[in-house]
Write a structure and sequence with these properties.
Distance between the termini: 57 Å
Order of helices and strands: HHHEEHEHEEEHEHEHEHEH
Largest sheet: 6 strands, mixed
Number of strands: 10
Structural class: alpha/beta
Shape: elongated
CATH architecture of the largest domain: 3-Layer(aba) Sandwich
CATH topology of the largest domain: D-Maltodextrin-Binding Protein, domain 2
Number of domains: 3
Strand order of the largest sheet: 4-3-5-10-6-9
Radius of gyration: 24 Å
Oligomer: single chain
Length: 296
């Protein structure tokens, strides 16, 4: 007989170490905080040493526990892959994806039906963040962020490049023409607190380093700014190809598409300790394929 740790406690331990929170582990597993603590205590008794120590108001895994959790997660990955290979092919899998709000609303969600058709056994649950650089925490199978990182605990797969250019509503330009960049002085410029350099960078690329003398309105998040642009309240700077469908649908126009500012591209981040199921790997491959269509 193999002398294994208590397997239920081991599963609770893996989730607690991965999420960094007894509370989040309980939410993921449908257990109370006390039940998680008892399972961790049982595993600590089996090992004869502490696996978590108190840091401020939270319990943090010890270095040895983090290393052990990584190995346990890899073992669970293998069990999961074997179970999927031997299990019912029609069994549904839920993939939890964390993505920036605008990216999720304007690029990811409108395309998800294509993935669902290709992988009918997978359900994709999307949660949004209000900033591209929000701290990564547990509770997701895949995160989408912009930039090169560093991402020390995730495998990063680049899949989509991005560039900014000027955007406006067709109705606004029908009322007030915009023939050359210098005409910006006739318009309000709509900016976003979370994207403070968008206007400065684009004006510099347009040869208007000092910017036209015009009024500005600043919103807290880009999806609010984007709605204001679509409502004709002023001009904005928007990312492409994220907004390609808005152009095609006629909600937006890009008056000077040749004046673009390259931005860091998007990456799919797979936590090193998450279950690498065939459905999850298929989702990553699908993102790469969709991104290559945009590049084309």
């Amino acid at each position: 007989m193999r002398r294994l740790p208590p397997l239920n406690a081991l599963r609770v331990f893996e989730v607690a170490a991965r999420t960094g929170s007894f509370t989040q582990a309980g939410a993921e597993l449908g257990l109370t905080h006390g039940a998680v603590s008892r399972q961790i205590g049982a595993l600590e008794d089996w090992f004869g040493q502490r696996l978590f120590v108190r840091v401020g108001r939270r319990m943090a895994a010890t270095p040895a526990a983090r290393a052990f959790a990584a190995e346990v997660s890899l073992s669970f990955d293998r069990v999961m892959a074997a179970a999927e290979a031997c299990g019912r092919p029609e069994a549904r899998r839920v993939l939890r994806v964390s993505a920036p709000s605008t990216f999720a609303m304007r690029w990811l969600i409108p395309r998800l039906d294509a993935f669902r058709m290709a992988r009918p056994e997978a359900d994709v649950s999307v949660t949004t963040t209000t900033t591209l650089h929000q701290e990564l925490r547990g509770g997701f199978d895949l995160a989408i962020r912009r930039g090169a990182g560093p991402w020390p605990y995730q495998r990063a797969v680049p899949f989509l490049d991005e560039a900014d250019t000027l955007i406006a509503s067709p109705a606004l330009l029908a009322r007030r023409a915009l023939a050359v960049p210098a005409d910006l002085g006739r318009h309000a410029l709509l900016a976003t607190e979370t994207r403070p350099n968008d206007w400065a960078d684009w004006l510099s690329a347009a040869g208007l380093s000092d910017g036209p003398a015009t009024r500005r309105r600043v919103f807290d998040h880009f999806f609010v700014t984007l709605q204001a642009v679509e409502d004709g309240l002023g001009l904005g700077i928007g990312p492409f190809p994220i907004l390609d469908r808005s152009i095609t649908a006629g909600r937006l126009v890009a008056p000077f598409p040749e004046i673009r500012v390259a931005r860091p591209g998007y990456v799919a981040l797979i936590p090193s300790d998450t279950d690498k199921t065939p459905s999850l790997l298929a989702l990553v491959d699908w993102l790469v394929a969709e991104g290559s269509k945009q590049a084309g």
